[in-house]
Amino acid sequence: MTDYFEAVKTRRSHRNVKPESPVSDDRIQEIVEFAVKHTPTAFNAQGGRVVLALGKHHEKVWDIVKDALKEVVPEKKWDKTAQKISMFKDSYGTVLFFNDESVLEKQQEKMPLYADKFALWADQTQGMLQHIVWTAFATEGIGASLQHYNPLIDEAIRDYFNLNESWTLHAQMPFGAIKEDPGEKSFEPLEKRLKVFK
Ligand SMILES: Cc1cc2nc3c(=O)[nH]c(=O)nc-3n(C[C@H](O)[C@H](O)[C@H](O)COP(=O)(O)O)c2cc1C
Predict the structure, then answer these.
(1) 46 in Cβ contact with 54 (< 8 Å)
(2) Rounded mean pLDDT of the chain?
(3) Which atom of ligand 1 sits closest to the CA of residue 148?
(4) Domain coordinates of the chain in residue numbers?
(5) Which residues face 177 on adjacent strands?
(6) Other CB atoms closer than 10 Å to residue 187's CB: what's the count?
(7) Residue numbers in the chain where pLDDT is lower than 70
(8) How far from 182 is each of 5, 14, 34, 144, 165, CA to CA, in Å?
(9) CATH topology of domain 22-179
(10) Cα of 19 to ligand 1 centre, how many Å?
């Protein structure tokens, strides 16, 4: 239990990481595979989808983000935005998290009673999947952050990776060897957030 709590606490947002990894690509893949396999899903539907992008594929993700942002970010804000995207490109890899909408639709057809709940549950399982990868990375000394340039980049990402149209992008997680301390984190008082009755 202590190890698990320690892992949960060790996970932080590391936005500025190194373009290298403390562990092998095989180990990174193993972590992502484990998370995809073991994350719980409503009615065990298993609609979460993941792309692990390394090397030139990782770089392409951030080129796509940059191109998409160039179309919408005002000129005077561009330098700051471009710098931020370069920082993410200068990571080691990116995990892309998707939901397969065709799984969701099948669930809605099969169980109309819960039709309006499946999208919500798909979101919740996304969060669990992302957290498992993020936390497992932390235990291996990999720093990662959670970014959301979807839906702006969905189509270009789908085209580049040749993904099914039913895959909708939920989050992008750039990662790499830890470069700097993430800094102090403030916490709201637990008494305000948790009620215990015993
Ligand atoms: C659902 C969710 C969405 C988030 N979206 C972003 C994001 O788009 N960009 C970003 O830099 N951080 C994002 N974050 C990171 C949070 O800002 C961060 O987790 C929070 O400030 C606590 O810091 P910590 O991750 O270091 O514990 C997101 C976190 C969560 C849980």
Answers:
(1) no
(2) 97
(3) 8
(4) 22-179
(5) 18, 142
(6) 6
(7) 1-2
(8) 18, 6, 26, 11, 37
(9) NADH Oxidase (3.40.109)
(10) 21
Cα–ligand 1 centroid distance for 145 (angstroms): 7
Token readout for 114 is 């819960």
Ligand 1 binding pocket includes 13 (Cβ within 6 Å): yes
124 lines ligand 1 (CB under 6 A): no
Beta carbons within 10 angstroms of residue 128's beta carbon: 15
Amino acid sitting at position 128: M
pLDDT in tens, 36-68: 999 999 999 999 999 999 999 999 999 999 999
Q: Is 144 in the pocket of ligand 1 (CB under 6 A)?
A: no
Distance CA 110, CA 103 (A): 11
As a whole number of angstroms, the distance between CA 1 and CA 7 comes to 10
Measured CA to CA, the distance from residue 68 to residue 66 in angstroms comes to: 5
pLDDT digits (tens, 9 = 90+) for 17-35: 999 999 999 999 999 999 9
